[in-house]
Design a protein that fits this description.
This protein has 275 residues and is mainly beta. The chain is 14% helix and 39% strand. It contains three helices and 18 strands. The strands form four sheets. It has a five-stranded antiparallel sheet with strand order 3-2-1-4-5, with no helix packed on it. It has a five-stranded antiparallel sheet with strand order 8-7-6-9-10, with no helix packed on it. A five-stranded mixed barrel has the order 11-12-13-15-14. Strand 2 and strand 3 (31-35) form a beta hairpin. Helix 1 crosses helix 3 (249-261). It is elongated. The model has no long low-confidence stretch (mean pLDDT 89).
């Protein structure tokens, strides 16, 4: 491997030349400068460094360990927002660019964002909020485990994409009817399935028999808002149910059945009425 292959990564390199302003590492034919200000007093014959590019786009080495490495994820603070994108504090003197085209939402100075580090077409290190390719699928999570995650993308077709523990791929499927979550939100969810490819399906709803109690209370509250009479019954379309209550038709029918059994409502040909 050449020194440039280590761009955005840590590596161990040999000291091949000492100069007044630092040390050259690598080999006589392929070397990179480690400035004296970045080097320990006792450097030895080999040293671990991080390779990046300075403000003049030259390869440079540092012994400072940054907050993120190529292909990995980290939460970084937005240091500033400019006309070309946002600059992030990643622990090095030169801040890391998060281009506008790599932002999935507008970011603001001072906030923390979850990003991955990649090398762009111009061979420069940049950050991206498009995390899907960088998330892992080899977790040890099992069905019904509780997890915490970060919303990094939303899709009407697929659902809400979650970076579980800032590391693993998770998805709240669109059929869950979740519409209130936005990019950057923190969520606590339940693992509803682990697929063969390792990707994790999530739900922010409880198991059906537990969720039914909560859903029935939502229906009762909605009935009160409608003065005790809903203008549709349990045969309403899934779209109407999702719009009014935010959950699936099956969940709606379970909750309605519970209320009916408890004698709290009655169902007519066109309505549901509070007793």
């Amino acid at each position: 491997m050449t020194v440039s292959d280590y761009l955005g990564q840590r590596c161990k390199l040999k000291v091949v030349k000492t100069v007044d302003f630092g040390y050259y590492l690598g080999s006589e034919e392929d070397k990179v400068l480690l400035p004296k200000s970045e080097a320990p007093e006792d450097i030895g014959e080999e040293i671990e460094v991080f390779i990046y590019k300075d403000s003049e786009d030259r390869l440079i080495a540092t012994t400072v360990v940054p907050m993120i490495e190529r292909g990995k994820l980290a939460r970084l603070k937005v240091a500033s927002v400019t006309r070309i994108g946002a600059f992030l504090d990643w622990g090095l003197q030169k801040e890391l660019l998060l281009p506008f085209k790599e932002q999935t939402r507008k970011v603001e100075e001072g906030e923390e964002v979850l990003v991955a580090l990649y090398v762009d077409k111009s061979n420069r290190l940049c950050a991206t909020m498009k995390l899907y390719p960088y998330l892992e699928t080899d977790s040890s999570y099992c069905k019904d485990d509780e997890v915490k995650g970060y919303v990094y993308e939303t899709s009407e077709r697929f659902g809400t994409f979650i970076a579980i523990e800032d590391r693993y791929q998770g998805l709240i499927p669109a059929k869950e009817g979740v519409t209130h979550l936005k990019i950057g939100d923190e969520v606590t969810a339940r693992v509803s399935a682990v697929h063969e490819d390792g990707k994790i399906a999530l739900s922010i709803r409880k198991k059906a028999f537990l969720q039914m109690d909560d859903d029935s209370q939502v229906i009762l509250k909605k009935l009160e808002e409608y003065d005790g009479i809903l203008p549709f019954n349990d045969k309403a379309s899934p779209e109407i149910i999702k719009m009014e209550f935010g959950f699936s038709k099956n969940a709606f029918k379970r909750a309605v059945g519970k209320l009916l059994k408890e004698g709290k409502i009655r169902i007519t040909e066109k309505t549901i009425e509070l007793l």
